[in-house]
């Protein structure tokens, strides 16, 4: 049972997230032959203020 766990910055539409789930499921099925019903996808959305690189949050970077 493959588990695909994705963390991304919040802000995408429900349609974009649904498309991502579908394409990840397709990729796992095609790449490793996993049975579709056994593929699990978890999307974790993190607020831009809680994600930083080089001591600058994405929120701060977007405000520049």
UniProtKB/TrEMBL annotation:
What UniProt keywords are attached to this protein's entry?
Isomerase
Among the Pfam families in the record, one is Tautomerase
Q: Which GO terms describe its molecular function?
A: isomerase activity
**Where does the 4-oxalocrotonate tautomerase-like domain lie?**
2-60
Q: Which family does it belong to?
A: Belongs to the 4-oxalocrotonate tautomerase family.
Stated name of the protein: 4-oxalocrotonate tautomerase family protein
The organism named in the record is Actinomadura darangshiensis
